[in-house]
Every structure is written in C-alpha cells, then in structure tokens.
C-alpha cells in the first residue's frame, strides 16, 4: 500500500468516526426533544385532549417538530450514501457538502422551533442547543477532511506565460464563455431548487 493510499484510508476512517459521532448526537437530540415535549406539556398541565388542542393551536411549533422527525432520517441516509459514493469516486465533494449542510439546516430549524415554546432555562433545550453546535462543528470539520481526500485534477496546468498574445486573448474568451454557461446553468438549478422548496414546504 502506497503512502498516499495509506493517508487516504486514515482520513477516511477519521471521517467515518465523525459521521458516527454525528448520528449519536442526532439520536441524543431526538431523546432530548421527547423530554422537552413532556416538560412543555407538564408546565401547561396538559392531558391527552389538551395536548391535541395545543398542537392545533401551536401549529408552527408542532410542524417544526414533525418536519424534523420526517426529514432527518432521509437526510442521514443521503449523507451516508454521499460519503460512500465520494470514496468510490461516484459522488462529488459538492454533493457531500450539501448533504451535510442539509443536516445542519434541519437541526437549526428544529432548535428554533423548540425555543418558541420551551422555558429558556430548560435543561433539555440546553442539551439540544449544545448538540446543534456540535453538529455544526463536526459537519464543517468533515467538509475540511473531505477536501483533503479529494483527488487532484488529472488535467495538466496551463502555462499561460508560454502563450502568444493572440492565444491568451482566445483563452480569455473561452473562459468568459464557460463562465457564462456555468452562470446560466446555476440560475436554472436555482429555479429548480426554488420550485422544489415551494412544493415541499408550502
């Protein structure tokens, strides 16, 4: 095994450890959310019928919790698949980054929902917020590690200094065209994302 391959495997194993840590924190957040819900109901002295009315009356809070519960499992699955795909050369670093950012966004939204009804001094809420910060830090650490795993481009660098003025101008025009094409593609993808979010969250 070459030194490069050995370093790759070391980084990959560290990345796996981080992912496992992420999943344990998410599990803890879910457990804390159950305690927080009980605390909120106990504070308001709610029984079964009262709980149903409370959910209806506070739909933004309840929808935030339900949305988190429904979305987190698929988000974790996608994050795991994207990591495995990246290691096998089938997934880009951008896909892995997006999957991690989605997990962070879901947890952040969940914390905001919890804060709307929880006592600011609530211990379960404090634990949830700590978990959210840990997820944020680990996710960004994972992105840095993934960048370290990324293989360098196989395309040889272009020696611009060796080009004639005419070729430099032509090369510049090619780059401008490529940038415009990428910007157009980016705008199309943004429109798709906007439509998807509108359909999913509204």
UniProtKB/TrEMBL annotation:
Q: Where would you find this protein in the cell?
A: Cytoplasm
Tell me the keywords, alphabetical order: Coiled coil, Cytoplasm
Positions the record marks as coiled coil are 172-199
Q: Which PROSITE patterns match?
A: I_LWEQ
The Gene Ontology terms for molecular function here are: actin filament binding; clathrin adaptor activity; clathrin light chain binding; phosphatidylinositol-3,4-bisphosphate binding; phosphatidylinositol-3,5-bisphosphate binding
Tell me, which GO biological process terms does this entry list? actin filament organization; clathrin coat assembly; endocytosis
Quote any Pfam family the record assigns: I_LWEQ
Q: What is its main location?
A: cytoplasm
Keyword Coiled coil listed? The answer is yes
Q: Which InterPro entries match?
A: I/LWEQ_dom_sf, ILWEQ_dom, Sla2_fam
Which residues does the UniProt record annotate as the domain I/LWEQ? 1-202
Q: Which Gene3D superfamilies match?
A: I/LWEQ domain
Q: Which domain of life is it from?
A: Eukaryota
> Where do the TM regions start and end?
none
CC annotations in GO: clathrin-coated vesicle; cortical actin cytoskeleton
Q: What is this protein called?
A: Huntingtin-interacting protein 1 (Trinotate prediction)
Task: Specify the species.
Answer: Myxobolus squamalis (Myxosporean)
Its ancestry begins with: Eukaryota, Metazoa, Cnidaria, Myxozoa, Myxosporea
